[in-house]
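Complex record, two chains
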Amino acid sequence: MPTVIVDGQEIEIGADERLNCIEAARRAGKEIPHYCWHPGLSVVASCRMCLIETGSRDAATGKITMVPKLVPGCQTPVKDGTVIVTESQLVKDSRARVEEALLIDHPIDCPICDKAGECLLQDYHFQHGQAERRADLHPFTSRRRDVGPTVTLFVDRCIMCTRCVRFTREVSGTAELMVTSRGAKEEIDVFPGHPLDNKLSGNVVDLCPVGALGDKDFLYQQRVWFMKREANVCGGCSAGCSIHTEHNQDTIYRLKPRENPHVNGWWICDEGRYGWHHVHDPARIVAAGRRALTGGAFTTVEWHDVVGRLRDDLKSAGRLAVAVSPMLTVEEAWMLCAVARSIDPEAFLAVGHVPRQGADETFPGGFTIRGEKCPNRLGVEAVVALFDPAVRSWDDLVTHVRGGKANAVWITAAYPGPWLDEAAAAAFAGLDCLVVQDLFESPLTALATWQLPAAGFAERAGTWVNVAHRAQSFGQAVRPPAGVWPEGRLFWNMLGRRGLYDPDAVRRQVAESSAALVALAGEIPPHGVDLRIAQLA
Amino acid sequence: MTTASQPVLLEAVGVPDGHTIASYRSRGGYAPLEQVLAGKQPADVIEMVKSSGLRGRGGAGFPTGLKWTFLPKDHPGPIYLCINADESEPGTFNNRILMEDDPHQVLEGIILSSYATRASTAYLYLRYEYPQSWHRLQAAIDEAYAAGYLGKNIRGSGFSLDVYLHRGAAAYICGEETGLIESLEGKRAWPRIKPPFPAIEGLFRKPTVVNNIETMACVAQIARRGVDWFKSIGVPADPNNPRDPGSYGPKLYCLSGHVEKPGCYEAPLGITARQLIDGQGGGVWKGRRAKAVIPGGISMGLMTESELDTPLDFAGPGKVGCLGLGTAAVVVIDDQTSIVDFLHNSCRFFAHESCGQCTPCREGTSWSLRMLERIKAGKGRLRDLDLLAEIGGTMGMMPGSTICGLADGAAWPIKNAIKKFRGEFEDYIKRTNPSGWMVTDPVPALQIVGAH
């Protein structure tokens, strides 16, 4: 195994691993500061923050020969015998000088900068900078420039790392951003008439190590140190990108990509990034309501009464059909199927409506936005298959109901927007009992006898299976509005379970009952598990 | 050291219609090319250039033949030859003379070099500010095509070559070899990180050689006059230094500044600055003494009057603390000129021309300029000199803080001026800022920035 010596500490790396000095030093627990380098982008070695001393150890004699100058850690690959020195005086002085240089033209307007608190320029200045400012220059302006519908540029805060420029060239392939002018006068800009407007544009804000690129959706909404972050999975499409939901006091403020080499790399799309606003929509259904078959207004039913009365209503109506929404988690779907079969052992189970919008779209950097706009079709199909190997679809359910084969229908939805029109909803008219569990009122709730609120994105906990069969578990990030029981809690109670809803317990139970989902039995790692690989094993 | 009595590289200067193909052929031009194409292999040409000891004339002085051998063997092609005619080093104009007065000499060198490196396409990257060179070179290329020295199957040898003349857009950084390549590709001329070096992955990601105009002229002359002639001129390698390849051949020295007869002079490598100034240049103007001399373009730093006996070969200027021979553009600064003004001018140039890629150069050049502006405005302090020296000492490829050598070129005049003329700087600061020159307090807190 190749051995690398980091500040005197020997570490082994994989024989076929291609690491640079930053990555190798990280293995040894040494953080080499860097701005322009990003693992998802090409190497330019221009910020010069990662300058270190390197050398090589002769395998035969053990003699160490050092390179007589500083080299950029990002650009220098390690091999057997590479020596890395990250804490010599030469390196420290060099870092202090780069920090000093970057701050010469920087407005230092941290008190009004959104990035403050998560800014590399701040962090590195405290770690590696010098206390005294030697440049007595007062050139400060803080010009703001609109570069596109989602992003605003604070021109003078920029340190010219060009991560954003490289992103639009290498990952989104749209190349809107560029560098203008030369030397200390250079700036990031867009070409006239070609704003930064692509489906991945928000990523440049995440990439920006300083406060130069601001997300218009988040700007001045919340200080970053007030927010808590929850590892989560995006529900916008079947790609299932790993994300962090950042929230404070049950209000979501922004979503950030969470690195996952198996799913999304370092990126998420704008559709997912800004796709959480429906969660805080005041028009959401927030109470369980029941009304007579003859119509009229819904009467609010207390949740503890819902558990029994819903079961009674469905039971007395007779033949039951259930749509299991692909927005539900594996755990919720399994409990729903179990509840349905406990009410009517012959209950017709179908995968709910699968929203689709266009074809899959793959970008030059390999990132793909899926046309299937729900997160868990595969997971729900696998669960439904446990109860009915035929795995019926939403269309099968509509045909079933049109054929008069059901007296009671329970539709779980939880879609973030309108998903069916009046004509499609008409199929469900005239039933003895129609339960609709959704986020917003729709032509379907107009026909319903029971209207139940659904949990929004980030309000539920459980496991989703993405288009590549990767199962990712996540916890609840924010609590739903007062008066809303997430689906899981309702189903848990309808199954007669005691205590708080425990998705992990349900998940293990599902795994025990299914060969296809056996991989869900253990702890789910942060990057998820591939269900197919587990099956092969 | 021998002295060349007759100019060789400059033989067409003053010859009526010397820039035409007819004149060039009447002087013996293109005959060596035909002999090479008829009887020699590319490897023979590389060997010829290698054994001549020719070192690149663009500034760094890298041995030309050795550079060619870095190209991958048996590469399926294409291999490109780029000719660097983006002559922008202040004080330098030897390429211009060659392109305007003897473009065919350059072209013959290009064809020979392309044959040696198996390049089938050569790009001539020409400085924007040289319209006359542009016209003369294009006319020469057209003539060469018409005469069958360019194009398909040159003179029945099976060797084909196309030469394209590309006009830059007036940026100093385009003279850096990878900046030139980026610019040729249509991109912003930000020098590339190395490795890979251009010989492995250069223009359009193919093996590429970048050579200077004067180097091409030297190749043509070596083919015409032979290796022995070339090696008879200049300074042999230092036997005590195995890494010194020697400084052979004639060199075009551009003499400018405060001399009686400024101009481009051909002299053997190794002539001293004093010989050049007093001989060819007719002495410092107006009977004055030289205060300082730039040995090879502004980025090489400064020599003092007492250092003028330094030989201007590839090893000489380095021995007195200069960066190197550079482009051999000798600029004389007389004793009536303020070295503060000189450094201000130098810093202004590099702050303007820094490409802005690497932090130390982008901010260092700009900071040093603004410090000199303040000194010139009568607000200098002695501690500024220490700061300038620190910037000069830490910026560049040699300490490892930048990608390309522009920063070294920006740092050297600062470093040399502060070190060799510190007394003058101190006098200037004390005289112009009598109340504040000694202040060493930290800079006061910054003004609060207004909201956007």
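Note: Chain A touches chain B through 48 residues (CB under 8 Å).
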